TrEMBL record, chain A:
It holds the Pfam family SoxG. This is Sarcosine oxidase subunit gamma. It comes from Fuscovulum blasticum DSM 2131. InterPro entries: SoxG, TrmE/GcvT-like. SUPFAM superfamilies: Folate-binding domain. Gene3D superfamilies: Probable tRNA modification gtpase trme, domain 1 (3.30.1360.120).
TrEMBL record, chain B:
It comes from the Bacteria. Transmembrane segments: none annotated. The lineage of its organism: Bacteria, Pseudomonadati, Pseudomonadota, Alphaproteobacteria, Rhodobacterales. GO terms for biological process: tetrahydrofolate metabolic process. It comes from Fuscovulum blasticum DSM 2131. This is Sarcosine oxidase subunit delta. InterPro entries: SoxD (IPR006279), SoxD_sf (IPR038561). One of its GO terms (molecular function) is sarcosine oxidase activity.
Length: 184, 88
């Protein structure tokens, strides 16, 4: 058997801090898609309860310790940072997405204004509060965006688009930094 | 133009793909008369007023939507999920 070496999506990528915003690559982690079978909500809820997680409402995510359950579509959520509990496969189609998604953390004041350049959704705290998770485009990429703090979000895209995501976000930071420099 | 996705909330038009008339939801039964298939595939009303069409929320929740809108006033009166709807 050849020995395969798992490569992190962001291998070698350093963090960037510009214009007061910090862009940080996130470690790959276990990600499982949990797509409820019709009528499977109750059974899935019972199986997930011991993890401390309830199936999230649309546009929300829930967490317990390192485990989170992030709404990603109708009757679908991503289980991140935990293995699916036994019995979940009876209530939902559970598929391993680990390594298929790449995430970044973006934080700092002016976060919503910076992302407004790429995401056509209001991401100010009033419209996108703590616990919110949405499906939205980042420029042309389909993404999952989570509010993780008062001035912090995570953005996840298909791993194949990781470099493009980084390019888009780094360019926003560059331009905001340039604008600050011009103002002096 | 903005559509209020039943799951995602109000979103920009660029997130959606326009597919065509909602007639596509009423597929004739197998063995239906050729005229029924002709209607299903080719014949569409072109109303000055209320019309219903299919949109796909491809940059959001990936759901098919039935949008009821007015071609004269551009008013959008309903956006509903195709999933879970009663057969038409």
């Amino acid at each position: 058997m050849p020995e395969l070496i798992a490569k992190q999506a962001w291998a070698g990528q350093a963090s960037v801090t510009k214009a007061g915003l910090s862009l940080v690559p996130l470690e790959d982690r276990a990600i499982w898609s949990v797509a409820l079978f019709p009528g499977g909500a109750e059974a899935a809820g019972a199986v997930l309860a011991p993890l401390g997680l309830g199936f999230p409402q649309p546009n929300r995510w829930v967490s317990a310790g390192a485990a989170r359950l992030v709404w990603t579509g109708r009757d679908q959520a991503f289980l991140m940072g935990a293995e699916p509990p036994a019995g979940l496969a009876g209530a939902a189609a559970v598929t391993d997405q680990s390594g298929g998604w790449a995430g970044v953390a973006l934080s700092g004041p002016g976060l919503a204004q910076a992302l407004a350049r790429l995401v056509p959704v209001d991401l100010t705290p009033a419209a996108f509060p703590e616990g919110a998770a949405i499906r939205a485009p980042v420029n042309h990429m389909s993404a999952v965006i989570l509010r993780t703090g008062a001035e912090a979000v995570e953005i996840w895209v298909f791993r194949s688009m990781a470099r493009t995501l980084w390019h888009e976000l780094a360019e926003v930071l560059d331009r905001l930094e340039a604008r600050i420099a011009i103002k002096g | 133009m903005r559509l209020k996705c039943p799951l995602c909330g109000e979103r920009d038009r660029r997130e959606f793909y326009y597919s065509g008339a909602a007639d596509y939801l009423s597929r004739p039964e197998a063995g239906a008369a050729p005229a029924a298939w002709d209607d299903y595939l080719h014949n569409r009303d072109n109303p000055a007023g209320v019309t219903r069409d299919l949109w796909y929320h491809e940059q959001g929740c990936a759901q098919w939507l039935v949008v009821t809108r007015n071609t004269v006033t551009h008013e959008i009166t309903a956006v509903e999920l195709v999933a879970g709807r009663a057969a038409e």
